[in-house]
Amino acid sequence: MLSLRRVRKAYGTNEVVCGVDLELDAGECFGLLGPNGAGKTTTLRLALGLTDPDAGDIRLLGHAVPRDAREARLRVGVVPQSDNLDPDFTVFENLLVYGRYFGLRDRDIAPRIPPLLEFAGLQARADARIQTLSGGMKRRLSLARALINDPDLIFLDEPTTGLDPQARHLIWERLKRLVAQGKTILLTTHFMDEAERLCRRLAVMDRGRSS
Q1: What is the Cα 6 distance to its own chain's centre?
Q2: Considering only CA atoms, which of 71, 51, 53 is closest in space to residue 61?
Q3: Residue 90 carries which DSSP code?
């Protein structure tokens, strides 16, 4: 599903990813556990082809990255660290418009939205504006949005940071459901309990190195 071999990335004299090796199997939740600034987010950006590596080999769903990253990302869902939901759209419209980015037609997207709203526990908020949602609701909507293209692999960057305990548990429950459905997840976190609850395997990152 994803393979990184001896991947490096530096900004000036600061090497933020130092020869990382990583491999994901289908159907697992794999964790990147480490403190803020460890290089986790940069590693995700490298894997997605959003940042070019200085060295190393990356393959995402059989595609060479960054060369064929665009094709690979059609089968990937991403939940970024910070919410980037569109405040001009309703909950329903956020899902509809995001589906168009994958080349899906509205008539194909629309039937997918009610099950995703149910998954996110937002059935009653379909017409709500983003500004009216709680932090936990926004994170669940971001997760639902990442599933609009029925991805084979899902990237989640610190998905529960800043959430209260109840909201965190709701996100964990949704992620467990995805794994049970056969989805593959790459999760970054600095919470040890989160990694323990969700991940079958993990790598510890610190100062750009993994172990």
Answers
A1: 22
A2: 71
A3: B
**Angle, alpha carbons 85-88-93 (nearest 5°):** 70
Looking up tokens 């079958």, which residue turns up?
200
Name, in order, each residue with C-beta under 8 angstroms of 50's C-beta and a sequence gap of 6 or more: 69
Overall average pLDDT of the 51-61 stretch: 98
Residues 6 or more apart whose Cβ sits within 8 Å of residue 82 = none
- Residue carrying structure tokens 């692999």: 153
What end-to-end distance do the CA atoms of the chain give, in Å?
20
Quick count: other Cβ atoms within 10 Å of Cβ 205? 26
Coil, strand or helix at 177: helix
What is the model's pTM?
Answer: 0.94
List the beta bridge partners of residue 150.
none
**Cα gap 98→115, rounded to integer Å:** 16
Which H or E run contains 138? Answer: helix 135-146
What DSSP letter does each residue of 160-189 carry, written as one string?
TTT--HHHHHHHHHHHHHHHHTT-EEEEEE
Quick one: which H or E segment has residue 96? helix 91-100
Examine the pLDDT at 211 and tell me if it is beyond 90: no
Nearest CA-CA partner of 142 in 84, 72, 75:
84
The answer to whether 38 touches 8, Cβ cutoff 8 Å, is no
Contact assessment for residue 110 and residue 118, using Cβ atoms and an 8 Å cutoff: no
Average pLDDT over residues 174-194: 95
